[in-house]
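User: Hand in any protein.

Assistant:
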Amino acid sequence: MLTPYLRRFYLPLFCAVALTVYVAQHYTLSLPELANNYLNDLLCMPIVLKICQYTVRFIKRDTYLKIPIKISFSLTVFYAIYFELILPQFYSRYTADGIDVILYFLGLLFFLWVERENPKGNRAGF
């Protein structure tokens, strides 16, 4: 259905959108509040997890290997703790925001939904 197309194109699309937001922020261009404050947090985990999955597939030489859900969840928890609890204590650029944590987990759910199907069988795990 729709998921094979999403699986193929969401990484470059999400990266392009996230980069556009980042560049606009860097040049202090006006963005809608939701895009300025929350869009990249929503896109973060699908981008990170897909890159991790590509890396593991390359290292293991297995194009159908999936990152286990527990590792995906753990990495999302790590990002939430690091970017929402630790970094705001040391850098004013980072702010602790519970909405960001929710967006990280929504991004995780998107990644799990899009990557759940495997056309060559289930090869989950390392």
Notes: Residues 82 and 88 are 9 Å apart (CA to CA). The mean pLDDT is 92. The two ends are 27 Å apart (CA to CA). Residues 33-60 form the longest helix (28 residues).
